[in-house]
Recover the amino acids of this structure.
């Protein structure tokens, strides 16, 4: 039987030391050992991106990494994004732009979007779409996700009206 | 989703890694070398690979990065794709590699996946083998008998098979500089995230309107990456015009042996190779942006 | 309603941001797989690698002694208690169906069918032990192709004498809704005969299915990723022979469904059995590979069509002969999916003769069932493709052919040839708006330019109109179609002593935004702030009655129940208000959350009344304490959203690649409660419909193995693969409900598939291509172009 390894990982600003089986995936460590169930698993072939977290500040798929590989590293999950009860701009933007429906892809989308904006703070719509190529969403058709990321890049997020300002794209005509 | 149990070691040096591989081999362990893990871990999760021992190269210093060694660049085997895609030395001297690396999988995978790991994995649909072959790179391999180097032409030996033997480790790839050459990687997929159905890597040197040399690599046109030798010969010495390039590209499928699968049959791939070669060369010589 | 009730509409129509979002964007989600219970055991399934085989032996000894394994159950172990998974829609009295145990006992009929389950202390231990179960199979011949299955040369089940499950026929001449199709065909000036293939799709919700069952206590509690907690509870009780009252089903956060979680799954039943056998809480979470292989699929039909018309473009009749692939078993509503389409082949058109015949056929594939649109996308695809074929035949503009045949605005209400009554619609308005947003003439000019220039990238304009039947469904209609349940929905509105409102709805959301929309409805109706309304759903102990979420029914049925309950609360409150203010009930007016005595300045608020009814110190004689009401709404008719979609499609004739240059849709979903939510539903529907046209197909090899068994090969598009959608709306209120709403959940999926395929063909038809099967892959498009040069271009 494979022997366990001791790892120390900083997750969302807290240091954890644990014994883990080498085969334990980082996402399983986060979810099952640390209770960080905000990070989700949507596939088994590194396609869907639901499990995206940051490893030392860059996006990785936590289902395609062993927990032992994270030893000595810093991990940020969706649960570490809001600070002092205030949503991170991307979290706020996803809400404002109706960029989520069932919410299952959302943690991964937000984490990948954050990584994308770090590498390219002012992306075009095409660059945003390309930057999200490794994240699948089945609900939104992506348009509002792209809009949310754009709104953060453009600095137009944060509106406390409680009403969407982006849903106005629909042109409506009343017909009796 | 859950791999079989395995023993794990993360050596600090190449020598230590080689020792672990030798010991594992002696003990009859089925050992796998873990680089970025972006291809290995998925197949382990699906239990299509069940190693009893995994040797992780991730803690070895000195295998990661790009260095200038005169007329070539040395790319550490553990250099992540996103570094290859953005490195200024590569952008200056072999932008073809940067462009190809930027098409691998998706951003998260490019953050973890490594240049050397992808080359040793040698997926026929992978995006790095053909450009590396076209560039005539040299592979630096460490093993029990010391270091050896293998030319790209001899490195890719078959479906998922390379010159790296059991007990050996790829440590780096030496790529000649193509400063001033035109280049383009033309990749064709059905959806963005997909492996290449066919792709073409073109390195073209143009002097005074004449193509003096062309090096063309084909992705997924056989069990290994191929050079499109007939195209290269047809281009060399000819004018850098759309007509000449189209005529030369018509030879792209010669000597290929593409597979048939859900994304297309061999005839379709043979056709794609010609279209994509034309587009790649046109873009490389600056006549038309690649699609 | 009484004249003294004034309705405000400050909320309805407003793009309220969602109440559901905060926990989802911060990772405080409550998906089923997040659940952990003390001592919880984990399940892993042993699945058949064969599509059809006799099980001759199952050796579980090695698995049972594997570390951490607590139990291994085989079909034989549970044969006496597992029952047969339910089919709630026997479409004919003589419908045939094989017994369908959750764990196969003697025979497997598709690859991926469960043959044993491991119950272990950890998920890893369970997975490890799967390898140690030794199942002996005798392979049987498989039948994979639907048309071949129809011949009965190879049987999908040895227990059945035929692959035919049922034949269902609708004939307008027999039904008295129209004339004879055969007469129409015999006298046709133009006859269009086509066969279309609706490929197999996989719903591919992002959250893999997961179930946790806690057998402790006096009831079994199940958390599960389902669209249908109420139906599931009833069906579990019937399947397992336990009283319904002993089962509680909770659908916590559910990560998408699209019909794929409208099912009573073997895995849910197995998790109950495992919990019952071990006495411990048990969890099963499928892998994506398992989800793609064994979660139900959708579509999978062969449509043989004959459309008769006059040379002026007037359609005179339509004959539909359908083969529908059931897969290996009948799931919850598998058999009825084609029937949902039967009423929609005539779509927005008024031709007089229609015949529909469907043969439901078994194959050795994963069973099919509801997938977004469920029968209606297939029907819309068929008629909209045929309208384009007719336009081509007659050299008419495709919009002109449609206009010649559609029901004109002034002709509503309209009794259709399929026997439905369309209440309202305005196809002219939606089409005009779409044409305008699209710049139809400009696109036609650009198309001509590219054709004249022999441009390697050709442009096609894809047209699709649609209507659908939403708001499933009037219970009487379901009864007439032999469906096993009604179509009503239930709601409760409770005014709490604090004045806050709790709304309980039987319609359980999984991403649609019910909590937000229902809050808007109730805030308006009761005159309370949006923030003060809490919506509860998805737990059979909280929401005791309901028929759940599918068929674009939530607002038009569930929302109406909520409004009806709120209206009852107002009526009750008036009684108390009159008592408190010593006035007569007739003199009480309700407006903006306050009850006034007519002609005086005396008033009291809903909150004050709620507190009074809670304290119950001084209530009218016979008044029951507390201010709450239940309502059940059964719709009198379906609702009929409609729309016009236009797609500008670029086809690279060198590679066969298809790109979407512009996509415009104008949908008429009636009165809109929250335009932001409506637009979100349209976007998501478009993505799935476009994916059917271009990307997705569940492919099996000849032996029955699913080749597209992971997201590597089952191509769900990501952001760069889809266009920016231009959406517009017209608003023609429905008359079948008091709000005038119609339903939007499936609209985008229904119209976008034919719009895209019509566009692809419009781009290459002049090059000799006549048809391309879905998905229109680059390879298929290129081959069709090659074939056009030789054989006429069908691919």
């Amino acid at each position: 039987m494979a022997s366990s390894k001791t790892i120390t990982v900083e997750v969302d600003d807290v240091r954890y030391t644990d014994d883990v089986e080498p085969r334990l995936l980082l996402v399983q460590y986060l979810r099952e050992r640390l209770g960080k169930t905000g990070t989700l698993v949507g596939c088994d072939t590194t396609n869907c991106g639901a499990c995206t977290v940051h490893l030392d500040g860059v996006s990785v798929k936590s289902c395609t990494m062993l927990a032992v590989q994270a030893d000595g590293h810093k991990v940020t999950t969706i649960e570490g994004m809001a600070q002092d009860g205030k949503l991170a701009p991307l979290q706020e933007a996803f809400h404002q732009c109706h960029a989520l429906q069932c919410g299952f892809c959302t943690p991964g989308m937000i984490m990948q979007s954050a990584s994308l904006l770090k590498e390219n703070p002012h992306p075009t719509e095409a660059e945003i779409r390309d930057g999200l190529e490794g994240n699948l969403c089945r609900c939104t058709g992506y348009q509002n996700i792209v809009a949310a990321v754009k709104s953060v890049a453009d600095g137009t997020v944060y509106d406390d009206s409680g009403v969407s300002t982006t849903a106005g794209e629909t042109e409506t005509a009343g017909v009796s | 989703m859950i791999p079989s149990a395995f023993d794990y070691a993360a050596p600090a040096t190449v020598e230590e890694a080689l020792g672990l591989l030798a010991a594992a081999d002696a003990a009859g362990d089925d050992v796998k070398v873990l680089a970025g893990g972006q291809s290995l871990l998925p197949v382990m999760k699906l239990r299509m690979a069940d190693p009893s021992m995994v040797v992780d190269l991730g803690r070895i210093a000195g295998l990661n990065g790009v260095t200038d060694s005169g007329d070539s660049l040395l790319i550490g085997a553990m250099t992540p794709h996103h570094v290859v895609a953005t490195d200024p030395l590569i952008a200056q001297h072999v932008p073809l590699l940067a462009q190809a690396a930027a098409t691998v999988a998706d951003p998260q995978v490019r953050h973890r996946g490594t240049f050397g790991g992808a080359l040793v994995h040698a997926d026929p649909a992978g995006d790095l083998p053909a450009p590396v072959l076209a560039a005539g790179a040299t592979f630096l391999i460490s093993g029990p008998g010391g270091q050896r180097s293998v030319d790209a032409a001899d490195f890719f030996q078959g479906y998922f098979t390379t010159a790296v033997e059991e007990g050996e480790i790829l440590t780096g790839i030496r790529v000649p500089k193509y400063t001033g050459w035109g280049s383009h990687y033309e990749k064709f997929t059905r959806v963005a995230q997909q492996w290449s159905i066919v792709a073409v890597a073109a390195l073209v040197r143009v002097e005074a309107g004449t193509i003096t040399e062309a090096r063309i690599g084909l992705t997924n046109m056989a069990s290994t990456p191929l050079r499109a030798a007939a195209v290269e010969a047809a281009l060399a010495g000819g004018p850098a015009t759309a007509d000449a390039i189209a005529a030369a590209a018509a030879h792209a499928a010669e000597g290929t042996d593409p597979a048939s699968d859900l994304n297309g049959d061999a005839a379709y791939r043979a056709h794609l190779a010609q279209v994509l070669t034309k587009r790649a060369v046109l873009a490389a010589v600056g006549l038309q942006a690649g699609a | 309603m009484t004249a003294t009730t004034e309705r405000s509409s400050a909320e309805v129509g407003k793009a309220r941001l969602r109440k559901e979002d905060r926990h989802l964007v911060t990772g405080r989600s409550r998906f089923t797989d997040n659940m952990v219970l003390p001592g919880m055991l984990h399940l892993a399934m042993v699945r058949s690698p064969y599509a059809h085989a006799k099980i001759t032996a199952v050796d579980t000894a090695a698995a049972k002694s594997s570390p951490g394994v607590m139990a291994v159950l085989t079909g034989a172990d549970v044969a006496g208690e597992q029952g047969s998974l339910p089919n709630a829609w026997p479409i004919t009295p003589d419908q045939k169906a094989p017994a369908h145990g959750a764990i196969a006992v003697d025979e497997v009929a598709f690859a991926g069918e469960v043959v044993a389950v491991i119950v272990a202390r950890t998920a890893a231990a369970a997975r490890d032990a799967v390898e140690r179960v030794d199942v002996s199979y005798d392979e049987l011949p498989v039948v994979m192709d639907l048309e071949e299955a129809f011949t009965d040369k190879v049987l999908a089940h040895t227990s059945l004498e035929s692959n035919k499950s049922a034949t269902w026929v609708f004939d307008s001449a027999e039904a008295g809704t129209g004339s004879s199709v055969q007469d129409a065909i015999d006298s046709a000036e133009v006859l269009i005969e086509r066969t279309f293939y609706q490929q197999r799709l996989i719903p591919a919700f992002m959250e893999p299915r997961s179930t946790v069952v806690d057998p402790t206590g006096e009831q079994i509690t199940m958390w599960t990723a389902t669209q249908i907690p109420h139906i599931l509870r009833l069906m579990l009780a019937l399947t397992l022979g336990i009283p319904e009252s002993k089962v509680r089903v909770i659908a916590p956060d559910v990560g998408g469904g699209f019909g794929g979680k409208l099912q009573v799954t073997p895995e849910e039943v197995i998790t109950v059995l495992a919990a019952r056998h071990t006495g411990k809480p048990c969890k099963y979470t499928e892998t994506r590979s398992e989800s793609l292989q064994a979660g139900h699929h959708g579509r999978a039909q062969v449509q043989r069509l004959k459309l008769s018309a006059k040379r002026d473009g007037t359609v005179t009749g339509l004959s539909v002969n359908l083969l529908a692939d059931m897969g290996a078993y009948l799931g919850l509503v598998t058999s009825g999916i084609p029937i949902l389409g039967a009423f929609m082949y005539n779509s927005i058109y008024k031709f007089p003769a229609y015949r529909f015949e469907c043969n439901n056929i078994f194959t050795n594939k994963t069973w099919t069932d509801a997938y977004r649109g469920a029968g209606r996308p297939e029907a819309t695809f068929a008629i909209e493709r045929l309208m384009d074929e007719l336009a081509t035949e007659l050299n008419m503009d495709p919009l002109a052919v449609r206009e010649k045949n559609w029901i004109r605005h002034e002709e509503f209400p309209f009794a259709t040839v399929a026997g439905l009554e369309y209440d309202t619609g305005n196809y002219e308005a939606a089409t005009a708006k779409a044409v305008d947003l699209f710049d139809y003439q400009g696109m036609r000019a650009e198309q001509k330019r590219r054709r004249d220039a022999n441009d390697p990238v050709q442009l096609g304009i894809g047209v699709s109109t649609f209507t659908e039947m939403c708001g499933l469904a009037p219970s009487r209609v379901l009864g007439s179609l032999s469906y096993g349940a009604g179509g009503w929905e239930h709601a409760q509105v409770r005014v709490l002593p604090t004045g806050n409102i709790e709304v309980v709805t039987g319609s359980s959301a999984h991403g649609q935004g019910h909590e937000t929309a229902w809050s808007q409805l109730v805030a308006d109706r009761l005159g309370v702030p949006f923030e003060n309304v809490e919506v509860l759903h998805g737990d059979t102990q909280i929401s005791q009655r309901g028929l759940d979420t599918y068929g674009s029914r939530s607002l038009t049925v569930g929302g109406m129940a909520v409004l009806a309950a709120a209206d009852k609360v107002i009526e009750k409150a008036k009684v108390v208000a009159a008592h408190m203010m010593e006035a007569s009930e007739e003199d009480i007016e309700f407006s903006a959350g306050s009850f006034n005595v007519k002609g005086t300045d005396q008033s009291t608020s809903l909150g004050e009344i709620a507190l009074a009814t809670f304290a119950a110190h001084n209530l009218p004689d016979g008044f029951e304490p507390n201010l709450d009401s239940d309502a059940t709404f059964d719709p009198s008719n379906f609702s009929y959203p409609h729309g016009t979609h236009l797609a500008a499609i670029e086809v690279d004739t060198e590679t066969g690649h298809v790109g979407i240059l512009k996509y415009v849709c104008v949908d008429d979903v009636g009165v809109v409660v929250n335009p932001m939510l409506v637009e979100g539903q349209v976007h998501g529907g478009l993505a799935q419909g476009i994916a059917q046209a271009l990307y997705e197909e569940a492919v099996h090899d000849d032996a029955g193995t699913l080749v597209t068994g992971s997201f590597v090969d089952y191509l769900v598009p990501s952001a760069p693969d889809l266009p920016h959608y231009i959406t517009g709306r017209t608003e023609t209120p429905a008359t079948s409900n008091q709000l005038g709403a119609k339903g939007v959940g499936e609209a985008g999926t229904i119209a976008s598939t034919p719009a895209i395929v019509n566009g692809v063909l419009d781009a290459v038809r002049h090059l000799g291509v006549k048809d391309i099967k879905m998905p229109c892959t680059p390879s298929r498009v290129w081959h069709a172009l090659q074939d056009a040069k030789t054989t006429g271009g069908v691919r």
Remarks:
- The radius of gyration of chain C is 28 Å.
- Chain C touches chain B at residues 123-124, 127-128, 131, 287, 289, 652, 654-657, 695, 699, 707-708, 710, 712-713, 715, 717-721, 777-779, 782-783 (CB under 8 Å).
- Residues 89 and 333 of chain C are 5 Å apart (CA to CA).
- Chain C is about 30% helix and 25% strand.
